[in-house]
Structures are given as C-alpha cells and as structure tokens.
Write a structure and sequence with these properties.
The protein is of the alpha/beta class and 327 residues long. It has two domains: 229 residues, HAD superfamily/HAD-like (Rossmann fold, 3-Layer(aba) Sandwich); 71 residues, no CATH class. Helices cover 39% and strands 16% of the residues. The protein contains 13 helices and seven strands. The longest helix is centred in the first third of the chain and has 16 residues. The radius of gyration is 20 Å and the shape is globular. The two termini are 18 Å apart.
C-alpha cells in the first residue's frame, strides 16, 4: 500500500504530538529524537524557537518561513549510485531488450551492458540530457508509474531494502519538525521533478507542488487516444548549483530562511539562503559514517572547506545522528 512507509515514519511525529502541548512543540527533549544531543541539534532548535516566538526580536511570520532541502545525499542515500541513476540504468536495460536499435547510442549500449565507466565521457548536462531522452514520447503517467514501481520493488544492493526506504530518518524528522512549526518545506533537487514527486508525500510529507527539480518539456496530447501529457527529449532545467537559487525564485517566489544540502551542488542555494536580511540558517550534511552509511568527500570538497566562513553548520552523520535509516 502506497501510504505504508509514510505511516511508519509518521508514528514518530504522532509520539511527538502526544507528548507535548502546542506551546511546547519546540522543546529540545521532544524534538529531533533520532539526533544525538550535540551542539548542532541545539542550534537548530534554538533557531526554530527564535523565528517562531512572537516575543523574539528575530520572529519570522508564518508566510515567510520557507525551508529548502536538497534530496540526493541530504534526505536520502546517494551511494553507490544516485537512486535516479539506478532507475535509469534499469530502465535502459529493459528498453534495449525490446528495442535493440537503442544500442546505437553509445551511452545506452554501455549502461545496458554494465559499463558504468562510459558515463565519464559525458558532461553532467549531456548525461542528464541523454538519460532523460530515453523517455522521449513516453506518457507522463506511464513514467510516473514506472518510477514508483522501481522505488517500491527494487532494493538497495547494500542494505537490502526498497530504494524509497533509503531515507535518513533524522532528516525526515527535521522536515516534520519544521512543518510542525509552520514552515513551508520544499525539496530543491537536481533529480528529475516527476521522479521525486512520486514519493515525496509518502516518505517526507512534502506535497508534490513543493518539489522543484530538473525537468524536461512536456507536450499535451488531445486526440482520439485521449488527453494526456507526454515527455520529450528537451531539457528545460538542470537544477544544480547556480540554477537552484534561480528556480527557487521562479517556483517559490520567496527567499528561504532555512536550507539543507550535502554537496557543492547545493553551495549557491545555501549561500543564497543566508544572503538576506533577518535570521537564516543553513546546514551541510557530511557523509563521514563508513560503518552505518558511507564515508566520502567527492563532490562536496568546496562546500565543506568554505562552510565555516559561509556560516553553514556541518552535520556529522557519525556524531550527530543517533540512527541513519528508519528501523
């Protein structure tokens, strides 16, 4: 059942509500239960209390409480491969079986045959464009169903659990905690927008309209076969780095006061969040827990190096997270 995983996550929130009155929803002993009692947890709670207390000089009205979260590596696992890439490889392998002509494309042929090294021959944008083009002329609903089935039925190779359950429980709790305190929470991801929307509400409690991601042009079909949208091979936006603040302005229309990321691809989004007047906060999730998750720096070197100067808080998965994945 589609809501099962969301309900299991929601149990923590239900417990949180049952143990606290509305006036006490921000108390440290109730919030962020799968975070360790480290300074970063206290900093987050302190920030939320300041911007939500009417008596505070840093009070922020509900309409301006905007929070943005990256997805891959911030809300869910991204190793050994990005989950969207896992899907595209599986899709291309299946597509090549029914349409061998696709093997004329070097990337598709390589991925279908298990040659991941072939991806190094493409720039990030060209890789995105080629992968998205594999779905050219596919009805949007068919793509949506295909993605949802993959995330539900296919398992992570290391953890042996469905991909949609590879979320970081402390970060999901943080999303809930902000929502309880009347933040409007958005996902701002480099992942394809429909891909993330298939499960955003179920696993994060973030509605589909609050997902901003990379996207392709959709065309409207109205003929004897029906009325529906089909995908094209034209990339409208590759939502990464400096494109993230631009798309926040385009799709959200307000500057966030809270941002969470994990890589150099989130650098400009976190920088933008802290550039306004008034209170703001940005956190950078650092993957340093080889035993419970993975330990790596590739793709996050600049963000980690500049975090202190930029005023971003670095969240150590090893030190700050009591647990990584939902139990």
């Amino acid at each position: 059942m589609k809501t099962t995983f969301f309900i299991s996550n929601l149990l923590l929130v239900t417990f949180f509500f049952s143990c606290t009155t509305p006036e006490k929803q921000t108390t440290s002993h109730k919030a962020l239960m799968t975070w360790n009692e480290t300074p970063i947890k206290n900093e987050i709670i302190s920030f939320v209390e300041k911007v939500t207390s009417p008596e505070s000089s840093e009070f922020v009205s509900v309409t301006d409480r905007i929070a943005v979260f990256d997805n891959d590596g911030t809300l869910w696992n991204e190793k050994p491969l990005y989950i969207p890439l896992e899907y595209e490889i599986a899709y291309i392998k299946q597509a090549v079986e029914t349409n061998p002509e696709l093997k004329k494309n070097k990337l598709y042929k390589g991925l279908a045959e298990g040659d991941l090294e072939v991806m190094k021959e493409y720039s990030m944008f060209d890789l995105i464009q080629q992968l998205f083009a594999a779905h050219d002329n596919q009805p949007e609903k068919e793509y949506y169903n295909s993605v949802y089935s993959f995330l539900t039925e296919e398992f992570h190779p290391k953890y042996n659990r469905p991909f949609k359950e590879m979320v970081y429980q402390p970060m999901v709790e943080l999303v809930y905690y902000l929502q309880v305190n009347e933040f409007k929470v958005f996902i701002v991801t480099g992942g394809e927008i429909t891909f993330v929307r298939t499960v955003s509400e179920e696993i994060y409690n973030i509605p589909v309209e609050n997902v901003v991601g990379s996207n392709i042009q959709l065309n409207y079909v109205s003929d004897s076969t029906g009325h529906y949208l089909i995908r094209t091979d034209k990339v409208i936006s590759a939502n990464d780095k400096q494109i993230k603040p631009a798309n926040i302005g385009l799709h959200i229309g307000k500057k966030p006061i809270f941002a969470a990321g994990n890589s150099d691809g989130d650098y400009e989004m976190m920088e933008y969040t802290l550039s306004g007047e008034g209170p703001s906060m940005a956190i950078l999730v650092h993957h340093d827990d080889e035993e419970r998750e993975y330990s790596y720096m590739n793709g996050t070197e600049k963000a980690i190096e500049d975090a202190a100067d930029k005023g971003w808080y670095v969240v150590s998965m090893k030190k700050d997270f009591k647990q990584i994945f939902p139990k």
